[in-house]
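cron nightly-structures :: item 1 of 1
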Amino acid sequence: MSLNLYAKIEPYIGFKKEQEELHNLFLEKLLNLGVKKVLDIGCGSGDFLLKAQKSGLEIEGIDLSAKMVQRAIQKGVKAFCIDLCGFNKKVEAAVAIFDVLNYLNKKELKKFLSCVDNVLVKNGFFVCDINTLYGFTDVAQGSMIVDKKDRFIALDAEFEDEILETKITLFEKENSGCHTKESGVIKQYYHDIEELKLFKNLKLIDIDFISLFSDLSDKAILTFKKE
């Protein structure tokens, strides 16, 4: 995954309204579970960290993008650029918001869930979201153009064989007046909920199907409990 490239385009590709709605749903879920110490896995630029912190949760985040973590820290939250499997604290709940699981293939997902299990206390919770099949085939596929004064972004996404491949092209204007070009590919993977139920240490206890981008369910929020 092109982490640095995605960090550059993330502020310009929109979805703020949908992100805010999803964050509210996650926060409501955590507050209803009655947890206090929380880890945000793939915290990005820290928007959810800040919202949760203001609501009284003891939360910190981790992300593999140093640029994203830097943005988060500037907002006054705790964030670290480390891999989940290197996180050595125990928390009552962990969250992975806005497609984090979909960026992992099946092998990576198995390791990821094992590391989630390791950071949770007994009877701890893991709350995450995944794209539904409809979310991939009818919502995520397609093209997007963002034309700003000093940058031009093109996204072209195609879903095939349960993989969404998004090609990213970024043109940035330099002080000299010339433009630099960067390109990369991001892959996201469809995961069937029935397969996620098979992970032995995390029991799926709740599923909420939601509609962020359409009238039909394009995402599912899953809540697991460590047994």
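cron nightly-structures :: done
The longest helix spans residues 16-33.
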